[in-house]
Amino acid sequence: MRHSSDDVRRGRMKRAPEQTSSRASNEASSVCAIYGYITRIYCIFVQNEALDARIFHFAQVLTMAEIDAIDRRILAVLRRDGRMPNVQLAGEVGLSPSACLRRLHAMETSGVIRGYTVLVDEPDSGDESVVIVQITLERLTEDAIRKFETEVRKCPEVRQCYLMTGIADYLLHVAVKSPRDYERIHTEVFSRLPGVSRIQSSFAIRSVISQGRK
Questions:
Q1: Contacts from 177-186 at CB under 8 Å and sequence distance 24+?
Q2: Alpha carbon 178 to chain centroid, angstroms
Q3: Pairing outcome for strands 196-203 and 170-176
Q4: Residue whose C-alpha is closest to residue 169's, from 127, 207, 141, 208
Q5: Would the CA dihedral through 46, 170, 140, 36 be positive or negative?
């Protein structure tokens, strides 16, 4: 295919659309990676843990965007059974064991898979009760969040804690032995947490759905 001398002189010979798109995508990924590394180094020097956590979350979102449909099938299977042998996992997603293991290691290294855990089935003996606690802070500033989360982590009865949208700022899953035991925790722990303006508690009657329970 010939090009006119004017086109050559003025540099109007265009790349194929897919080549341009691929190059732009690679450049964008490189810029995001460089930005993430530089910002994390800055966070280390200034010791700003909150900013560092936000950057780490941003990097995780970028990483999740890069995984493909096969990776997502692997994750879906592992969510059901995190102890599944690699050979069985490979068969579930239609890969060879070696290819499946490479993808698994890549997701572990990149932080898409942050770890593995054990789901313990709560006994139905009535020894423990679950209390769902909604907590609202006076101010939702960075300093208030940091102080509250630092102190709530010290309470062993708090099994899970979520920062929420909506009316309440935090949602806590608390395991207690009795209503009297929760009264003690409410008085000695929750009411003394820094920056708390409101506490709303609800006792769970029974578990209807629990992930990992068959």
A1: 177/127, 177/128, 177/129, 178/129, 179/129, 179/203, 182/129, 182/131, 185/155, 185/157
A2: 32
A3: unpaired
A4: 141
A5: positive
All domains of the chain, ordered by start, with CATH?
Answer: 23-110 (1.10.10.10), 129-203 (3.30.70.920)
User: Residue for token digits 């303006």?
Assistant: 197
CB atoms within 10 A of CB 113: 17
Helix (H, G, I), strand (E, B) or coil at 105: helix
Task: State the Cα–Cα distance between residues 59 and 57, nearest whole angstrom.
Answer: 5
Query: Is the full-model pTM beyond 0.85?
Result: no
List pLDDT tens digits, range 159-178: 999 999 999 999 999 999 99
